[in-house]
């Protein structure tokens, strides 16, 4: 039976849920600074790259249009979470409650950082999906590994180049910002490469199970056509 183009499968729905959970979890984990050797990072590095891997899987199997829906849903859910956290943070705590500082450290995201995070996520995610889609057409479906890695490089680079100057410009020394951005791109791309064998297996399973392997010939890449599936 041919699927209606405006329908989504159960697996796509599950991937969408996981995508949203990764974004929201990354927001919480970002509040912890961690060190790997002499490199200072944020805890969000543990989970945020997973969102790019999911983006790659969705774009490869279901196409750019489904990936566009995924990105906007993730953005909406993340915004909803951050907004509720900010609202709760603004409400005065009970007189007997003594965790105000800890709660504020996690949910009191500065508007500047929140705005930078949202813009960087949208731009990076759409660039990642666009590169995946175009390379699949140009390669005639071959070289999935190459497009998965290159799309991450382009997407993560855009994310870092937008987020760090907007969120930390004037706070972090100007000479340190390029180092932070470079390490983010290198480590997140390395993350993608390490889990690539698993990603390839997942993509293969999805294509067989769903009976889909979409090529985005003749589609609109307009990011605002959210429900054009």
From TrEMBL:
Keywords: Cell membrane, Membrane, Transmembrane, Transmembrane helix, Transport. The keyword Phosphoprotein does not apply. It holds the Pfam family Vut_1. It is a multi-pass membrane protein. InterPro entries: YhhQ (IPR003744). It comes from the Bacteria. One of its GO terms (cellular component) is plasma membrane. The chain crosses the membrane at residues 7-29, 41-62, 69-93, 113-132, 144-168, 180-200. It is found in: Cell membrane. GO terms for molecular function: transmembrane transporter activity. Its main location: membrane. Belongs to the vitamin uptake transporter (VUT/ECF) (TC 2.A.88) family. Q precursor transporter subfamily. Involved in the import of queuosine (Q) precursors, required for Q precursor salvage. PANTHER family: QUEUOSINE PRECURSOR TRANSPORTER-RELATED (PTHR34300). This is Probable queuosine precursor transporter. It comes from Segatella oris C735.
């Amino acid at each position: 039976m041919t699927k209606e183009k405006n329908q989504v499968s159960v697996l796509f729905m599950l991937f969408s849920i996981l995508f949203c959970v990764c974004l929201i979890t990354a927001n919480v984990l970002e509040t912890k600074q961690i060190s790997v050797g002499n490199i200072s990072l944020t805890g969000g590095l543990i989970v945020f790259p997973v969102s790019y891997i999911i983006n790659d899987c969705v774009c490869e199997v279901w196409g750019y249009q489904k990936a566009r829906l995924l990105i906007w849903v993730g953005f909406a859910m993340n915004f909803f979470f951050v907004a509720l956290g900010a609202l709760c943070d603004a409400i005065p705590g009970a007189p007997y409650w003594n965790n105000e500082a800890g709660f504020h450290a996690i949910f009191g995201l500065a508007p500047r950082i929140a705005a930078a995070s949202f813009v960087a996520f949208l731009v990076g995610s759409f660039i990642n999906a666009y590169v995946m889609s175009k390379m699949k057409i140009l390669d005639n479906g071959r070289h999935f590994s190459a497009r998965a890695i290159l799309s991450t490089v382009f997407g993560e680079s855009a994310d870092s180049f937008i987020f760090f100057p907007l969120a930390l410009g004037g706070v972090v020394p100007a000479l340190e910002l390029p180092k932070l951005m470079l390490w983010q791109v290198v480590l997140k791309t390395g993350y993608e490469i390490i889990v690539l064998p698993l990603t390839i297996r997942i993509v293969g399973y999805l294509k067989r199970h769903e009976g889909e392997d979409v090529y985005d010939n003749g589609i609109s890449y307009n990011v605002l056509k959210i429900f054009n599936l």
